[in-house]
Amino acid sequence: MTNRGKRTDLVHGGTKRSQWGELSEAIFLTQGFAYDSAEQAEARFIKAGEDEYIYARYGNPTVAMFEERIALLEGAEDAFATASGMAAVNGALTAMLKAGDRVVAAKALFGSCLYILEEILPRFGVEVVLVDGADLHAWRAAVTPGTRAVFFESMANPTLELVDIEGVAKIAHEAGALVVVDNVFSTPVFSRAIAQGADVVIYSATKHIDGQGRALGGVILGTREFIRKTVEPYLKHTGAAMSPFTAWIMLKGLETIDLRVRAQAASAEEIARAVSDHPKVTSVSYPGLPSHRQHELAQRQLGGKGGTVVSFEIAGGKEAAFAFCNALEIILISNNLGDAKSIATHPATTTHQRLAPEQRVSLGIGDGLIRLSVGIEDTADLVGDILQALDRA
Q: pTM of the prediction?
């Protein structure tokens, strides 16, 4: 069938069966492959054909199934799976950059992304400029001719500030730069990043793609030329390959991601509305609410959805935030997100603790800020747990 629905591709896309006709995708848990002859080995090392493999660091049948399926979901030509989300970020950027190149990035980024941009890339002669991601004028001023790439989170962690993909892509492409988007918070379910102008899309598969807190993984998506001629040569020699077992877990996650993420987003919107009126909550950030300053952009960019994460500031700073977290009875305290279980995070002391206090303030990460990753529990139970914890805080 042509023009199959998204959920159909998420269950069947990319599947390759062995001679045994297994229903669930097979785990080819091998690092090497045998050849029928020395001549066949020589030919494969010169140019491996479709469904021909050499070494698991270069490619594996289970990993290839995951790459094909996530590419179908994202609307990309190709994908390369990695050992973690940060391996994907580092691999995508490092594979394309060299000394003398210029990268313009949004300053509101996850701490490890900032480390790559501020600490690692400059060591090798790459110029990095950070801008206010929501300000198209700032992008226009910084993205000068000769800029190699722009990089941003389409929805920032943890403030949920959006970057206008179409707007930044237009500026970047006029300057000849590639648009690299970390799309974790937008999710591959709601994303249309490539259609909106992104050249390269990155996911931490650890989050919504696995969705059940089991394994680390990442993926880089883009054109076949970029993935196979730029990304693959770099990553297969530097060793950031995804394991076959992890790829199998991610394939199982993709089967249900559309159902999970839509349920999580619906609950997240209800929770955002419920905490908005609480006297101990000084501000709420959720792109699905009309009160979000980028609500119109969220409607356009995410197809009317707000995502699975709600951020809110509690009056009383760190002490009140800790009291809230410690009073939760259903929601867990952790630093992950996109899980089937709801998770509360205090970014200032965990995911973004390495940032200087003034840097956190400039990014909107206050001492009372809570990032809530909404799971698939009963919505009423989650709302009740949050409200009782706020009352006790």
A: 0.95
